[in-house]
Amino acid sequence: xxxxxxxxxxxxxxxxxxxxxxxxxxxxxxxxxxxxxxxxxxxxxxxxxxxxxxxxxxxxxxxxxxxxxxxxxxxxxxxxxxxxxxxxxxxxxxxxxxxxxxxxxxxxxxxxxxxxxxxxxxxxxxxxxxxxxxxxxxxxxxxxxxxxxxxxxxxxxxxxxxxxxxxxxxxxxxxxxxxxxxxxxxxxxxxxxxxxxxxxxxxxxxxxxxxxxxxxxxxxxxxx
Length: 224
Fold this sequence. Notes:
224 residues, alpha+beta, four-stranded mixed beta sheet, 4 strands, 8% strand, globular
């Protein structure tokens, strides 16, 4: 019987320094490492035309796309949920706790990330514009509010839903987008939470693997 193909995640061959460790394939890599599953990586050029086949798998021309046998998935949150429901280890056994983990998985993407993204866009792409300073103040206030909500809900617990789960993978990688700011540091509980997560060997393996795959070159004129 022929060997079954490995599950495969797509990743870029290059991104700017500020994005390294943040590209969304790291979420899937981390989950696979936590589960002890072997996987393949399909490296894509960061820029340029993508094939019609890839757009059929990932309609937004992003990474990751994920293949597991005949099944093709896109959106890292959906991939995390698929892996957690297919393989034991990243959802609590208790039904109520498992649903709590699913709620926090969705919350990371829907209730926290959009506010962080708005702030990061101001800081990375519009910091030199006169209007950005005024726009940034309410954006920072909203991010602070979201961080306090997460910190209050976490309290003294180690993880969001009892055991380490896909909720924590989603939340920690979302909060990591603030690493260029001091906002997370205002919530010591979140600092400890993120450090616990990033101290896990599976996270380090996932991060090392992503960084090792950045072997491409920036597009011509990138420095300008």
